Amino acid sequence: MSNKKILMITGDFTEDYETMVPFQALMSVGHTVHAVCPDKKSGDTVATAIHDFEGDQTYTEKPGHRFALNATFADIKVEDYDALVIPGGRAPEYLRLNKAVVAMVKHFFDSNKPVAAVCHGAQLLAAAGVLEGRKCSAYPACQPEVELAKGEFMDIPVDQAVTDGNLVTAPAWPAHPAWLAQFYVLLDK
């Protein structure tokens, strides 16, 4: 596998596992990962939340770790990156309102570069208008947004992932082995 330069766009109350696990897993196989958040710089942190599935009608939420960003959002040039990762949690809900973030997401699709999104990351994909005609999995509560964006919502088990062209998506953090494996394949092309 050739080493790639990967951008991770995240924010406050990103899902803890959906941020830290891919960040560390991608670096552990030799990729460079730059984690950024609008209006924050390298060394700043974002709050994370731990979402769990405990038998309720939706996930529960608990305080997570502080996640340290290792790059400055304002300095990012998306053309310097080979791929994009969008973690879930509550961050995509407000990140999709940031025009610079939406433009960054669009760049990766316009350039046909690999993109991995998990859980509520689909909210950012929908806002960027990149889901039309694409298969996309996400947390089930995001199904209406995927479909309103003219994507095909894939109702798959929580530990599975789906690849459609340059896009890998999954419902939630239990799918890390599946979506990381599929993302590695895209990164190696």
Automatic annotation (TrEMBL):
It holds the Pfam family DJ-1_PfpI. Signal peptide: none annotated. Transmembrane segments: none annotated. Gene3D superfamilies: 3.40.50.880. Coiled coil: none annotated. InterPro entries: C56_PfpI-like, Class_I_gatase-like, DJ-1/PfpI. Residues 4-182 form the DJ-1/PfpI domain. Belongs to the peptidase C56 family. This is DJ-1/PfpI family protein. The lineage of its organism: Bacteria, Pseudomonadati, Pseudomonadota, Gammaproteobacteria, Oceanospirillales.
